[in-house]
Amino acid sequence: MDAIMINASIDIWTVVGLGALAVVLLMLSAMASGSEVAFFSLTRNDIESFEERNDSTAHRVLELLANPDRLLATILVVNNMINICLVIIATQLVDEIFIFTGVWEFIFNTIVITFMLLLFGEIMPKVFSQTRPAKMAAFFSVPLKFLRWLVYPLAFILIRTSSRVSRLATKSAEISIEELADAVDLAETGSEEEQKMLSGIVSFGQTEVVEIMHSRVDITGLEFSAGYDEVRDTIVTTGYSRIPVYGDDLDDVRGVLYVKDLLPHIAKDNDFEWQALLRKPYFVPEHMMIDDLLKEFQKKKTHIAIVVDEYGATQGLVSLEDILEEVVGEITDESDDDEDKLYEKIGERTYIFDAKIHIGEFVRAIGYEEDAFSDVEGHAETLAGLMMELKRDLPRRGDELSSHGVKFFIATMDGRRVDKIKVEVDG
User: Fold this and answer.
1) Rounded distance, CA 130 to CA 39, Å?
2) Of 30, 125, 178, 415, which one is least surrounded by beta carbons within 10 A?
3) Cross-strand partners of 345
4) What is the three-class DSSP state of 427?
5) What integer pLDDT is reported at residue 157 of this predicted model?
């Protein structure tokens, strides 16, 4: 029959020695557990309070916090070593006092010792330290500084190993842009706007400047030789805050005029040499990624760039607003009006598009994949260019074209340039 009996031949000095050692180890375990919570529960105000003090205790605390990885590794190494020793000593102490038969020894050592260790070595010190982290961190700073030096080799190995495992885990968790895009498409979000924003974030690093720029024909610029009256009229008419200034043509951009630079000189006459206020233009290649351009805008503290091709010819203009609109959608301000919209939805599957819209933005608007027209678009970059590729000739008003389940109707022309295109998408 299973039973627990007192050992008749107890060695009292052995029991006292093991008991005293177990109590000391339990106190050290409590110290390690409490110090972990104390240091990593410090608020910003607590740390600032230590920084304002000019004493050795505050210096020790701040020194330990300066390398949190090493501090945590020290606490974990010490705590686990103490707990292992404590379990061994406690098991020997129990064996000295009791004689077990059957499963009682397993139950006693597993449940009772584990409960005592968790209660007095983990839970109580952590709860206590949580309520007064600053005081406990100051109290534990002396033994922790010594222990940090003592167990440095083991802590160093732990830090390096965990760092390596973390890098491997991060590397194995990497997914492709395509997989992330598929995940966004499958995700259920609160609104269509949220879905578009998520899609914009996913494709942000894969979008080129040429896909979002304002094309050359849509750039409003000023001639370098223009009079000040013409400059003011252009500013009032367009409402733009930054305007490119060119010499002979747009391939000779000499600077960018910031309207705010003119404010102190607003009352000057037509002979005012406004050209002295020009800022140096920033040129970017048409195939630059917009995430790289955003970093350059932040670095150079500018909001506008002139887009050039491989021969240095001006292809268009791109602004910080154009980049942000790729993520958050169309940004409308007081200078915008309905005529600036690149497309309008007039039916469930019917649209009126501005012919200058980029093909990438066009396919997103109608819900197609990015490369839906890649087999027919050739070198075209805008919807008007796509019409020329489909017809293999200059489009004319009234032309009807079809491709990939989409019907195109040339609605209006601006001279020889296609202006508006009506689009019907097959359901």
Assistant:
1) 10
2) 415
3) 351
4) coil
5) 81
pLDDT number for residue 326: 73
Q: Give pLDDT tens digits for 341-399.
A: 678 888 888 999 988 888 888 888 888 887 788 888 887 888 888 888 888 888 888 88
CA of 289: how far to CAs of 67, 178, 203, 231, 308, in Å? 37, 17, 11, 33, 14
Q: 44: exposed, middle or buried (C-beta count within 10 Å: 0-12, 13-18, 19+)?
A: exposed
Q: What is the pLDDT of residue 372?
A: 84
**Whole-number pLDDT of residue 321:** 85
The answer to whether the CB of 252 falls within 8 A of the CB of 244 is no
Cα–Cα nearest to 279, from 294, 295, 300 = 300
Q: What is the DSSP letter of 225?
A: T
Q: How many CA atoms lie within 13 A of 330 on its CB side?
A: 12
Cβ(97)–Cβ(7) below 8 Å: yes
What end-to-end distance do the CA atoms of the chain give, in Å? 81
pTM greater than 0.85 = no
Distance in angstroms (rounded) separating the CA atoms of residues 285 and 269: 38
Closest CA to 234 of 259, 253, 206: 259
* CB neighbour list of residue 356: distance below 8 Å, 6 or more residues apart: 215, 217, 218, 342, 382, 383, 384
pLDDT given at position 61:
86
Q: Which of helix, strand or coil describes residue 330?
A: coil
Give yes or no for a contact between 61 and 137, defined as CB atoms under 8 angstroms apart: yes
The distance of Cα 338 from the centroid of its chain, to the nearest Å, equals: 33
Rg from Cα positions in the chain: 36
* Tokens found for residue 104: 């009682």
**Token digits for 310?**
């491989």
Residue type, 10: I
Query: What CA–CA distance (Å, rounded) separates 331 from 324?
Result: 8
Residue 153, both tokens: 């080799």
Helix (H, G, I), strand (E, B) or coil at 129: helix
pLDDT category, 184, cuts 50, 70, 90?
A: low
CATH of domain 341-425: 3.30.465.10
Residues 6+ apart with CB under 8 A from 187: 195, 198
Domain ranges of the chain: 3-172, 176-206, 208-328, 341-425
CATH code for the domain defined by 208-328? 3.10.580.10
CA 166/CA 231 separation, integer angstroms = 59
